[in-house]
Records
---
Amino acid sequence: MSNHKHIIVSGIQPTGNLHIGNYLGAVKNWVDLQNSGKYEMYIFIADLHSLSGKMTPDELRAQTRTTAAELLAAGIDPKKTTFYFQSRIAGHAELAWILNCLTPMSELERMTQYKDKTAQLKMSTAGLFTYPILQAADILMYKGEMVPVGQDQIQHVELTRDIARWFNKKYGAYFPETKHLLTETPKVMSLLEPNKKMSKSLGADHVIEMADEPGVIEQKIKRAVTATEGGGQAPGVINLLMLLQKFESGLSFPRLSTGESSYERFVKAEKDGTIRYGELKDELAKAIANYFADFRAKRAELLKNPAKLDKIMRDGAAKAQKVADKTMEGVRNLIGL
Ligand code: TYM
């Protein structure tokens, strides 16, 4: 039997503090996959991708660091996972160019994220357009076979698979056919507009950040939308119940003496119409606040020690660089450079 460990690659943009959508859709999965010991893992901070947005250099510099500290505090272990800043590995941009030359424009025009983003802008850039190609380069650079992401990234991972096929067809088998990997909660919804994906771009009150203090969490959840007109199960309630299920281990007493969990109790109450949303919200706010207590402490500790953080990221980049150099040598040979 081959002892090849399957290769997992994923990344996150440093556009803001991590929120519970990032956590339940991606980050928790990364930590669990890492700790299973079954995979070769590459996790990076997609700082080059963030240049397609509107952060200032100072904001980008600060937030890249914070995002690194947050991923470490969430459980990414640089001894088990190659963890680095994308921009430190120059080959990503080089490989992206090579893949640009294989990708039809019509395929990029189909990308829903591109269409959504450009619809809100007066002027779109080539960077926004070719964004998914850089993402394909991020993945293929490490020959990523599985990419754990949330639902909004599936299309980009599918394009990566197509790009790998186009490359292999033209130049000879080299890249794997990448697949996405989802969690049970690939699309966490906004607190205020529960028919939309939780995203910071909707506004700060739509998301709960993992670093939010208990009082802030309580306030945000209090304002969360629950029942809507028209009857039936309201999307806001479904979202809050799902969050309770995922975070109830943060409660001091997640189970009643009957053995029923807090989540099960609220689901039952919702079905028989006796649910009190205020109670559900109190319970959920407590669960989330406690669940991330350890995270908040570790995050603060890491941010106090920038030299340590820098060293972790430098060491990670050195590890990634070795793999990237090997991939690029193979690519250049195949394509005739
Ligand atoms: P980004 O930074 O927007 O999000 C990081 C991860 O969080 C997931 N996510 C969610 N999951 C569930 N519910 C939500 N509300 C929610 N919001 C975000 C995203 O699906 C993602 O998995 N283009 C990528 C970054 C990237 C990348 C890559 C990812 C660059 N190169 C290579 C994988 C492989 C992005 O902007 O994700």
---
Amino acid sequence: MPGRQKRYPVSFANMLIVVVSLCAALLIAVVFILQQQGMRSWYGQTTEKTLAEKSQYISHRIEMYLDKPHMAGVLLSHLDNVAGKIDSPAMEHELQHVLEEDFAGANSISRIGIASSGGKYIAFQRHPISGDVFMIKSSPVDNQNLIVYKGADENSGIASRVEDFHLDSRPWFIQAMESDKPFWTNSYYHMFANDGQVIGYRLPVRQSNHVFSGVIFADIYTSVLNNYLKKLEPTENSALLLVDGQRHIIASSKSKWLAKQDKQAQGGDAKLSSISTYPKLETLLQGVNLKGQTSQLAQLEGDNYYVLTHAVNDQTQMLGWSLVIITPETLPSGMLKHADARIFLSLAAMIIFFLLAFIFLVRHFSRPLNNLVQKARMLGRQPWEPAGEKRLYPEIAVLEEELDSASGVIFDMIADQKQRIEKDSATGLLTRSGLFNEPSLYENRNLMLMIRVTNFRDVRSTLGHTHSLKFIQFFAENLLQRCPDESIFCRYSEDLFIVVFPGHNEQKDLDTYWGMLSSLFQDTPDNRMQTDAEGRTYIFTGQAGAALAELNKETVADCMMNAGLALQQSRQGANGECVLFTPQMRELELNNICMHQALREDLQNDGFHLVMQPIVSLDNTTTFNEGECLVRWVSPSLGFVPPDKFIGLAERTGMITSLGRWIIEEACRQLAAFIARGAPEDFKLHINISPVQFQQSDFADHLLNCILRNGLMNRNICLEITESVLLQDSTKVIETLSYLRRLGLSVAIDDFGSGYSSLSYLHQLPFDCLKIDRGFVMELMNDKKSEAVISSVIMLSQQFGVPLVAEGVETVEMGEKLQAMGCEKSQGYYYGRPQPFDVWMPLNGTVLL
Ligand code: C2E
Ligand code: CA
Ligand code: CA
């Protein structure tokens, strides 16, 4: 059923896609992380190495640059007799030549000159921006002021003057006079130009007798140095610093770290900034030994910076400066990172491409598979329709082919099974399902007849399957022949048939139909046997129940039940009886259900007891040596229930088996006690045995055992049976009875003359006594027919040589008449009602009435 299909949360295809997608995502993530980490450390190493190399190169270049003043000084000091001609025009010319020729270019010394002990000052200077060389010279008049010319000679015109310029008040001149060695000045401001700070190299010149003759000086503009550093920056965002031993910033590629120009401080020392002035710089350089060559990664505001230091000196080794290179970590690797991202992106794109291809394939495979599953759900319910599209995959194509052929087989099997379920193979009639599944067959009809062929099972067990098959087929044929056209027939179970008659019917129609059908079961000498085409003869016994009610899908089950109840009722009647359902039957059935329950309970709770009714010899009606044992039930819930009411129910429900066993046990016990009380040892007790009890395999053993256990003799017991025992497995019954008779028990045929009314069985059935049915005896006095029956039964018993017991004698006249007719024994209220055993009084080897 499609509605009942179990739902699975995730299909295999989806699971596969999810798992592979997760793997792909994981792979991308792993590649990303590995690449990040790997590249980062690689960047780090590369950057640091590159920077270290660069710092060496930069510091070398700076050193070369810083060496220039010294070299210029040395160059000049090597002039022949420099001390002697320090004030000479030749010297003047030499100075200009050195600046313009030997140290040309913007990134070189910016001023070179000589100050003589005679107070003379001559210098050539390069303008830091225009690069033009101009001359500064002591006034020819006196040495008290300096003239700044516009060009390199006196003809170029005067640009400005520096008044009161006294060499011997300049600190560097004083230092030079006192010193033999060259030295560097601090950063200071020129006296005569607003062109910023300079750092000066001073080379004292002495005559051979060590008399001071002057000082050669060569200066570097700090601004030029700053620009030079800028050019040397290893990367765009790097910063270069030149720092002195006191962590003052001499020069920097970044102007933000430089002290402001002080235009007022002409001729004085410059006030340099210290590293500590700049907190960020201070943080970066914290703990860095500026004097050594170091390289480290420092952190500032979450960013990493490479900080490299390198000692810087000119050849005189006097400067003792440090070069500091600061480079943000990310910058040098930026280019690499781009490349890196490209690798990563192409890898991720590849993974995603494979993933999409995989999903496409899985979907492409699972879609036809799902279609196949949908179709397979209808397998056998509808013909297989081959897929329109061509199958790409052999697996699915083969599966489809297999399902196609399986579908055909299942379809045929289901059709075959349906046929078998709905049609009885033996008779060709509808089965129970066949009738139920096709309401159109019985709709608009109202008469249902249920017929049981009661001897079918006997026929089968005695004559075998083949014969019983022909038997039932022949019955079905006869049934069909006798019923009107358009009747519907169903073999409900092996011995039960249903006929639904056409149209709307009344009770009289049932009588008509049954009139036609009942002859099937007639057991008269001229119409006993039915003969088939091959000359075989059959006897059918059976009964029928009918129900009159409008039939449709809703009522059919009830109607069947009602017909069944009527059939049950008919079983109490004779062969060939048909009973129409009445609502009372259902009431009775309900009562039976209650009684059934009570019977079951009281059987366990000792709700039963036995009584005995005397059987007297008609020639002595004052004592008796024989009696019939009868069961009594006083139910706590239902009160006294007569045996006629519950014995039949006990038989139908099978409870008679245990009740019967109890009766036999109790009867033997009571009889033994009765004999012990003085009853004759050969007292014969009749026990009623229901036909069902003979079905018990250990019936005889149990009975004999009870007799033995209670110290009785087998001849103490007479089994009362009715003709109906033969309706069961008669062979078995006859065998059991013969066996028991051989052992000394006797058998009485009860209710003789009623019911089955076939005398033929008397040949087969072993018996020692006949009991004529109470019905005939009751009518004896006023019905000649009954009298005739009784006298013929008396004759019959005499011919068989067995005694006859007349039951139901209520008056003295009846007894006398029976005796006159030749009846030997009698039983009835007139002689004694059934009473508990201990009510009867034994006396002198007999029992008193
Ligand atoms: P049954 O075997 O024919 O028993 C005789 C019935 O006739 C008894 O009815 C008895 O009380 C009654 N009867 C005897 N004399 C007279 C009379 O003068 N006038 C009238 N009107 N009735 C008389 P009971 O005891 O009600 O039993 C009815 C039937 O129940 C029995 O008929 C028997 O078929 C069955 N039954 C009773 N006890 C047992 C039993 O222990 N086992 C079995 N299997 N069936 C039993
Ligand atoms: Ca009886
Ligand atoms: Ca009887």
